[in-house]
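Assess this today:

___
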Amino acid sequence: MREWWRGAVMYQIYPRSFLDTNGDGIGDLAGITAKLDHIADLGVDGIWISPFFTSPMKDFGYDVSDYCDVDPMFGTLEDFDRLVEKAHALGLKVIIDQVISHTSDQHPWFGESRASRDNPKADWFVWANAKPDGNPPNNWLSIFGGSAWQWDTRRRQYYMHNFLTTQPDLNLHNPEVQEAVLAALEFWLQRGADGFRLDTANFYMHDRLLRDNPGKPADRAPTGDDRADNPYYMQLHLYDKSQPENLMFLRRLRALMDRYPDRMAVAEIGDDDPIGRTAEYVQADLLHTAYNFSLLNDTFNAAHIATALIAFEQATTDGWPSWAFSNHDVKRVLTRWGGTEADPRLARLLIALLTSLRGTAFLYQGEELGLPEAEVPYEKLQDPYGINFWPDFKGRDGCRTPMPWEAEAPQAGFSAAEPWLPIPEAHRRLAVGAQAHDPDSTLAFTRQFLRWRRSRPAFAAGSLKFLDTADGVLAFERRLEDERILCVFNLTGETRIWTAPPAEIAPTDAPGLGARLDGGRVALPPYAAFFGAMAAEAVQAERSAA
């Protein structure tokens, strides 16, 4: 029997921005529970919830101060239990974020660790002496700007932080730390979580010798999440992350999960070699699946997408990939790939394309509405990343604005109070209520397409073979036993004609995206897609000929 997560479509929820039920302008777990019917109606298989654990919210929940409790702004453990119960009743799996590369500096573990150099948790975080001249121990940099080392006057040592100074890195070389974080994961498995999204999963271990990272060669091609305005991307990150010992810990994590039937773990990978590292992390005894930033960058063309998928297939024989076009850390895909005046047909095409790729698909909240990136003025910014790098990089607030539920309701139905981030007028016009009864809307298309996709097993478990194309067209076949589906996408704003392979192809009953088959030619209007089926007899004849 196919494991549920293979070929699943997962819906990511950023809880601060989903639905506020207690009137404080911030979304909560009860809000997620209240809208689970909307999610189930999309035809997805489960949800991924970004962090809702106890936190001072310096990085909006990715700085955890208690791994085993719910922050009061999001509700209670009982609210989580009710959420899981309803999700399971609707046939939805629930996976939750786990941020175990670092904690908040308000976590009791760090409070004890920084108190002295000889207390029981002294080695639970990454501490190092200053160089003789007082400088940090090496040249490692924080993604959020500046050195990855912060001086602590109590211990008179530096501690490591890959992100904010308020997010000290755990020392997962220490077996006691491993035991502690695995116990936290088991707490949620016992509470009914169906799995985890592992934040920055290749950041868990550092080089024990604290060797300097080399500079990045000028002729090296950029990776998925590079930014020219951030010196972090001027280094090759050979020593501050992606260490071999990390795999040993992940095997322990996998062994824990294997004790609980039908669970899964998906890793987030940010690396100089994103595809190679992703393939490494999804070996049979490691993680179930992983995604990277290869399709979360600004490059949008057929060759780029095909190259990423082919590279993964070449790097592993049995690993299972995951793909996403948007999430809470990057500009919304409609704007990123379509520009500020993006054609709404592109939003529908991207839903179909993402969920047709071989792998597990992650849709970000609002993609089903075709939401563009929001413009958040500087005085309204909340994200410290954007505040530090303004104006060249405006941070992540533009993809984190609240979900619009009702166009005419106060705060678009998100909250009775002023929300933590503003809701743009363009989003209000695309609210769920405004699209729910429009058969031509992005929401209606998402529901129709995902329902149709479920009826075609090749999309969940079939192989993928790319076909020769040119001029902005991406074409591939999904194959499973006698089922063979031809998928053709026009990634441009101009009409394209594509010649189908010499085989018996017939249109399917896929929801319309404007393409048509005329003889052996597929006519593709701007941002159109075509889904064709080969008759079972033709597939069998092809096998016999081979």
Remarks:
- The radius of gyration is 24 Å.
